[in-house]
Design a protein that fits this description.
There is one protein chain. By secondary structure, the chain is α+β, with helices and mostly antiparallel strands. It has an 11-stranded mixed β-sheet with strand order 1-2-3-5-4-6-7-10-11-16-17, sandwiched between helices. Strands 18, 19, 20, 23, 26, 29 and 30 form a 7-stranded antiparallel β-sheet that branches. The chain has a 4-stranded antiparallel β-sheet with strand order 22-27-24-25. It folds into 2 domains: 322 residues, Rossmann fold, CATH 3.40.50; 185 residues, Galactose-binding domain-like (Jelly Rolls, Sandwich). A hairpin with a 5-residue loop joins strand 24 and strand 25.
């Protein structure tokens, strides 16, 4: 009785009606705005979607910093509620209508504040809740779920993640060591007080290396504390696929007893984010089998773990991944789903060497002097439009720019499958003490289209590890090695495989000033132009390492 009375008082004290100007018809689902109290008295803005009937129901929630008021977001929450759940959409501390200081993800973690934990336990104590809680969401909502799992709230039963991340130094605020100040200045619009975001951005730049500050929000150090079943969705055309795969691997093999061997992973030919994992991606129209109904599957997952329904969802394969093939070529191999107990499957790490005159082949270079140079000018960068990875699209517009170089195989005499993680090992020199390298892999069709599959940037000062900054000696050859991305692609007979290398690609990748000085929020006036050289000769042989897969069948 006391539990019900307390819950009623809390809800009544913090509930407000949704704004009339954005009213939508949810049928028999009720939408309510509430302010959920945290342990320090700060209240988070949340919208509850409650099904008709007397309840009680399990609750599922998502945490985001962006607005939760888009019609599509609200309608999706209402659809899940109709399946017999109270759905809560919650904004981060200091974002949108949530109270408190905006600190990004830091209040969601395992420090003094644990807003995810507090939200989970508040929901579990409400009179309309069975006490069983699940979580869902992607990207920012995926990070939030990994942080939540580490804190082990007693009522958290299961999770459902899309396109997720684990460490903000490697996969968020930075990518491959490259900084993104202009991208994150835009978070002023998210913060309730824009000055909070400006202070946070300055704080990041006071920590240029992977130190204790960044370790304090790195989930990869705490897989052993994650202890719930989770279904994870990854997307081949998404740089954050690294986080989705690593999250599955860590939870499946290093998690608690309720986590190990209870994870599932699906990876399809999709772009980052969204519930719509369809078969039309970028400029590619895959067969209809490429589509995955996220919303319905998520309800099945929750029905099993939160309601105890025996719907066999737990008996699905641990791993399902889509092997991409050529599109528009009848009879081309690939474009099929495979199942596996684990990921990745065993493949042969196969070097592909850069060659004189832009070639790419398995044979080592034979020239003693061969190299390729280009200008890297941060004041006049090459262009990759937008802020999202332009995968599944023709990349020739970038490849044909003046300071971009490509290395391409001859037409393949037979299909070749790469399934696994691609790595780059560049032998490079520069006239600057610091520079970036962007490496891409494309499938080149017989008609010339170069369909981009993966790419990744890397800042050379971190070539010896993210825990230190080591500048380059001018014109000395240095090895810069880094992972380019995960892939499952059958390059068809007659196609060619292309590796593209550049050092700028703005605005997607914000230029390196190349002056060797401490990195700054504002672009420095003394940023310098450089000549960068990729060496591909008998002594210094630049290459990529491809995961060549041969089916046992």
């Amino acid at each position: 009785m006391q539990r019900l009375l307390t819950a009623t008082v809390l809800l009544a004290a913090s509930m407000t009606s949704a704004s009339g100007q954005d009213a939508l018809d949810f049928g028999d689902v009720t939408e309510q705005h509430v302010m959920i109290p945290m342990r320090d008295g700060v209240r988070l803005s949340a919208y509850l979607y409650t099904p008709s009937g007397d309840g009680p129901w399990p609750a599922v929630f998502e945490q985001r910093y962006v607005s939760l008021r888009a019609a599509s977001t609200r309608q999706a929450a209402a659809r899940t509620a109709r399946a017999g759940y109270v759905v809560a959409l919650v904004n981060f501390r200091g974002a949108q209508l949530s109270e408190g200081t905006w600190v990004g993800y830091r209040a969601l973690q395992w420090g003094e504040l644990s807003d995810g934990y507090d939200t989970c336990e508040w929901l579990a104590k409400q009179m309309w809740c069975t006490g069983k809680i699940g979580t869902f969401g992607g990207s920012q909502g995926g990070y939030a779920q990994n942080y939540l799992a580490v804190t082990q709230p007693p009522h958290l039963v299961c999770q459902y993640m899309r396109d997720t991340g684990l460490s903000l130094f490697q996969e968020g605020y930075r990518i491959g060591g490259t900084t993104r100040p202009e991208r994150f200045k835009g978070m002023d619009a998210v913060a309730r007080d824009p000055q909070d975001n400006q202070k946070l951005l300055a704080e990041w730049f006071r920590h240029p290396t992977y130190d204790d500050y960044w370790m304090a929000e790195d989930c990869t150090l705490h897989f052993d504390r994650m202890n719930v079943p989770c279904f994870t969705i990854g997307s081949w055309y998404d740089f954050m696929n690294q986080g989705s795969i690593a999250s599955f691997q860590g939870r499946q093999h290093q998690g608690g007893t309720n986590s190990r061997k209870r994870q599932q992973l699906i990876i399809g030919p999709w772009l980052h984010g969204g519930n719509n994992k369809g078969n039309r991606i970028g400029e590619m129209a895959y067969p209809e089998n490429a589509a995955f109904d996220v919303s319905n599957h998520m309800v099945r997952w929750f029905d099993h773990f939160l309601k105890g329904k025996n719907n066999d969802v737990q008996d699905d394969a641990n791993v399902r991944y889509y092997v991409m093939g050529a599109v528009g070529e009848p009879g081309a191999p690939g474009n099929v789903w495979r199942t596996a107990d684990d990921f990745p499957p065993k493949a042969v790490a196969t070097p592909m060497f850069f060659q004189l005159d832009g070639g790419l082949s398995a044979g080592k270079p034979t020239s003693k002097e061969s190299s390729t140079s280009y200008i890297s000018d941060p004041h006049h960068p090459m262009e990759i439009p937008g802020r999202s990875f332009p995968g599944a699209r023709d990349a020739r517009a970038f490849e044909e720019q003046s300071d971009v170089r490509t290395f391409t195989t001859e037409p393949l005499s037979e299909p070749v499958e790469w399934t696994g993680r691609v790595h780059a090992e560049l032998q490079v020199s520069s006239t600057a003490p610091d520079t970036d390298f962007i490496v891409r892999v494309s499938d080149v069709y017989p008609d010339g289209r170069s369909i981009l599959i993966i790419d990744y940037p890397f800042r050379s000062r971190y070539r010896n590890g993210f825990d230190k900054e080591v500048l380059m000696a001018p014109d000395k050859v240095h090895k810069v090695a880094f992972p380019v991305g995960w892939i499952s692609q059958i390059f068809n007979k007659g196609h060619r495989i292309r590796v593209t290398v550049a050092s700028t690609g703005a605005p997607l990748y914000e230029p390196n000033p190349q002056n060797g000085k401490p990195l700054t929020i504002e672009f420095p006036a003394d940023a310098q132009k450089a000549v960068n050289t990729i060496h591909h000769n008998t002594q210094y042989a630049s290459r990529i390492i491809a995961p060549v897969f041969t089916s046992p069948n």
